[in-house]
Amino acid sequence: MKTKLCLLYGGKSAEHNVSLQTAKAVIGALDLNKFDIHPIFISTEGEWMKGPQLNAPVKDVKELQFNNGEEISPNALSTSISSSEKGEGYDMIFPLLHGPNGEDGTVQGMLELLNLPYVGNGVLASSAGMDKVIMKNLFAQAGIPQVNYTWFIRSTWKANEEQAYESVEKEIGYPCFVKPANLGSSVGISKCSSRDELAKAFQEAFQFDRKIIIEEGVKAREIEIGVLGNDQPQCSVPGEIVPKTDFYDYKSKYEDGDTALIIPAEVEEDVADKMKEIAIQSFKALDCSGLVRADFFLTEDGRIYMNEVNTMPGFTPYSMFPLLWKHTGVDYPTLIGKLVDLGLERYQEKQTIKHTM
Asked: What domain range is 24 assigned to?
């Protein structure tokens, strides 16, 4: 029996196009002898469109943005997916959504309410992992090493912009990075070395979120590790990102591939082991499940800082997560299968929880 896999992709997010690229890559990697692929496209306006079953990889992401599909309500998932009548039910939901309204726990919460099995992190891990401020606060509580950071909401900044800039200069200094708190894929991120750049960076970041985070800039290598599992997570080999630009921005990641990925990273064994230990510690601090990509800074004098974890890392041709596992001995189709199995494992465990006295 083949697994009926429902793919959710697109989404009402600034990372909509990243999700389309992820969906295209995942569809191309799925073993059609093992999976029936059922697409649901979510537009930038939040409309849900159910498309026909896919029987072959797509050549262009435009093929995934079908306008002639069946428009459905997310509530319809409770009947169209869980129903076993006429073979309409799906076995697993795979949210291939990046950013708000998909990766942040919103869709995961809906799937939990409908009691449907799905791939990836749950509500808490997704929401905490999306909000960089909350994530870093939890990491601080767990004793995980990080660079200095501070944060602002838009109304506080608007009330006294100069005071906000002075606070950053006093607490963080230059260089620093300004980021929207609830976005990934390097959207809205700026590197600042002066007051003028800082002011422009605040304005840029606040276009994408009501909360921003400012982090200390350190001269360091960027090392990433894939984590896979539920209660007993495992780590991939480490990989290194060497951007040709000033930092690993959106264009480098998704448009021109203007960066070098070194896998495995050339780090000492004890350093790699320490990073893996911190990666698992971070995974458990957020109560993650399924997968994360753990991103680190490694300074010249050997200091290790946790940068962030990504609870739904991309699966594009330029994405690090599947490449890390490929070099660890888990190819792309096998990786997808493992993620589906992990989602089912978590779902089955939750079914044993009592909800009545």
From this structure: 3-118
